[in-house]
Amino acid sequence: MIKETARGMAVHMLTRVETQGAYANLLLQKNIIRLTDSRDRQFVTLLVNGTLKHRLTLDYALRLHLSKPMSSLPHEVRAILRIGAFQLLYVDKVPSAVAVNESVELAKAYPKFTGLVNGVLRKVMDKAWDFPWPDVKRETVRYLSVRYSHPEWMIQRWLKRWGVEETGALCRANDEPAHTWIRTNTLKISREELMDRLTQEGVTVEPGTRIPESMRIQHFGAIDRLGSFQEGLFTVQDESSQLVAHIVAPKPGQRVLDACSAPGGKTTHLAQMMQDEGEIQAFDIHEQKLELINQSAQRLGITIIHPQLGDARDLPGVKLGSQQRVLVDAPCSGLGVLRRRADLRWQKEEKDLKGLPLLQLAILERAASCVEVGGDLIYSTCTIEPEENFELVKTFRSTHPEFEPVNLVEDLPFDLEDPRDIQQASKGMLQLLPHRHNMDGFFLAKFRRTSQ
Ligand SMILES: C[S@@+](CC[C@H](N)C(=O)[O-])C[C@H]1O[C@@H](n2cnc3c(N)ncnc32)[C@H](O)[C@@H]1O
To answer: Are residues 57 and 120 in the same domain?
Structure first.
């Protein structure tokens, strides 16, 4: 039995991710609170997320010194080797000898493999980054895949679009640790007051420079146990996600439809911007997720959201031309948020992308029919793949001359610097990319209905 130290806990969680397909972020949320020292909680988070993200590179390094396949080792031993190699290759603050010795300690729960763990990790320590990498010119895809730990199919897609340099930059951005962002509940408190309150609660805070209500926090306890959270003074939401409500730009008193709304991050933001006046119909196809919207709304003191169970391709009960703002935050491949979701890159397969554009277009078509003349339709995804974004919007526009693009520059709460972005945004579209914008990869498009 492995001891419940920070490293032991990381091994346990990594094993559950591999054997049961558990979600790393949920496991972390649930388990790290058992560790009393916040530095331990921080360390486990680093180990689990880092080891998951860099798995391909770590296995490449380990395999160079293993005489048998990784797959022949017990799952726990694989996890011990991986977190050991992760510390040796990526975590400067852990001395190499400590990384090896602590891994050997963990491996004592598997006595047959203690010698193997010791031997292999010592070799990784001696060689460090001196690997025989695949040749970058002849085996570009394999090189980038192994060097930056991404599936080959993703690399192939991005190479065609962006070439070697930029694909490498994107992969490096995805491999960075993700920051935690929160959104001030401006219905209850100002950002400055919330910053003071959080500081008193021991949270490190830094105001965001792009979104007026955002801030970046560092806290390795359970966020939902903070008094400020329980009082509904903020919501955890990534910065790119916070941008969406600013582009929707709803006004108090309006009729708003959120077609794919659960768990309600953007819905509650819309309600905030509307001063909790008006009406938001919040659809989602998953009943259990709708309850999360109710819980958030209650905590945040929001009353205007009406969660509705339903397929956004039908939007049962919603009349044609009845809404002043309609948001489609579509189900998507999520390839823009690989930095945030450490295990996502290994959960996705290229075939998963196939059916998405059809679903997204069907949702957008029905949602568009609900927009009144003069009202706005906003489409957003957290992906960087053109068929779910630019190409989808192009297809939609080719059959909907009654919708005109809306210049996004006026709604954006920050200035765009890249001329390519300014040009796109003036035509109603914006693709945020982790390596260019240092934000999650998000796509936004806005149209106004000009006639029936
Ligand atoms: C990107 S998430 C939405 C996130 C949400 N807007 C937020 O900010 O918290 C997409 C949502 O679409 C929902 N969904 C998937 N297919 C759907 C459909 N056909 N109709 C309605 N909702 C759907 C999923 O359950 C998921 O909650």
So the answer is: yes
**Same domain as 252, residue 205:** no
pLDDT given for residue 37 in this prediction = 85
Atom of ligand 1 nearest to the CA of 269: 8
CA of 43 to the centre of ligand 1 (A): 33
User: Does the annotation list 264 as a binding residue?
Assistant: yes
Number of domains comprising the chain: 4
Tell me whether residue 50 is annotated as binding. Answer: no
Task: Could you list the beta-strand ranges (E) of 128-274.
Answer: 180-184, 204-207, 214-218, 234-236, 255-258
Distance 258 CA to ligand 1 centre (A): 9
CA-311 nearest atom, ligand 1: 20
pLDDT in tens, 202-242: 999 999 999 999 999 998 778 888 999 999 999 999 999 99
Please measure the distance between the N-terminal and C-terminal CA atoms of the chain and give it in whole angstroms: 67
Tens of pLDDT, residue by residue over 93-146, are 999 999 999 999 999 999 999 999 999 999 999 998 998 999 999 999 999 999
Confidence bin at 29 (pLDDT 50/70/90): confident
Candidates 248, 284, 311: which one to mutate for ligand 1, based on the most atoms within 8 Å of Cβ? 284
Q: How far away, in angstroms, is 84 Cα from ligand 1 center? A: 38
Residues marked active site are found at: 382
Read off the CATH number of the domain in which 215 is found: 3.30.70.1170
Asked whether residue 345 falls in the same domain as residue 434, the answer is yes
pTM over 0.90, yes/no:
yes
Residues 349 and 230 both lie in one domain: no
In this prediction, does ipTM exceed 0.95? yes
pLDDT at 311: 98
Amino acid code (one letter) for 63: R
Residues of the domain holding 89: 6-127
Residues in contact with ligand 1 (CB, 6 Å cut-off): 241, 260-266, 283-286, 289, 311-313, 329, 331
Cβ 434 vs Cβ 238: under 8 Å: no
Q: Which helix (H) or strand (E) holds 266?
A: helix 265-273
Residues 6+ apart with CB under 8 A from 429: 389, 390, 393, 405, 408, 443, 444, 445
Kindly state whether residue 23 falls inside one of the protein's structural domains: yes
